[in-house]
Amino acid sequence: MFEIDPNSQSNLDEVTTLHVHLDVAVDFGGKVLRGSAALDMQALKHTQEVILDSAHLVVKSASLVDAAGQTTALSFDMSTKHKIYGTALRMALPEPVAAGDKFRIAIEYETTSKGGAIQFLTPEQTLGKSYPYLFTQCEEIHARSMFPCQDSPSVKIAYSAEVQ
């Protein structure tokens, strides 16, 4: 089998992400983001599982969302850990999807201070010294510590976000 990206644990050969919508709240005191990621996906071949990259995330739930907005809870597993590439988030779909099928997965999660994508600065570290500051740096493999995703340059993802 051809390996698409040796730095990703996601099943890049079976599904691809078309769009992600992040809805997160910033907790400057706790230095974390809390919220959800809704991933619009398309099957590249017949499959019954979605595997995403994650690193230092606390996943609270995963759901399949239908066109009417109704959700079906998905069982998920985060036991496949790699010391560099993080933790594979494996989600079993309730029914197999065929090549070309589109679907949405919603994941409730929280970041941790161990992730590399999000950096918090105290007010004292900023120019105005009045407000805290947050910035992100998702290269090279750090997007997976900001939200569960297919963290590979082979996947080009459009996104939208609501940040509180």
TrEMBL record:
Keyword terms, alphabetized: Aminopeptidase, Hydrolase, Protease
Enzyme Commission number(s) of this protein: 3.3.2.6
Identification of the protein by name: Leucyl aminopeptidase yscIV
Keyword flag Hydrolase: yes
Domain of life: Eukaryota
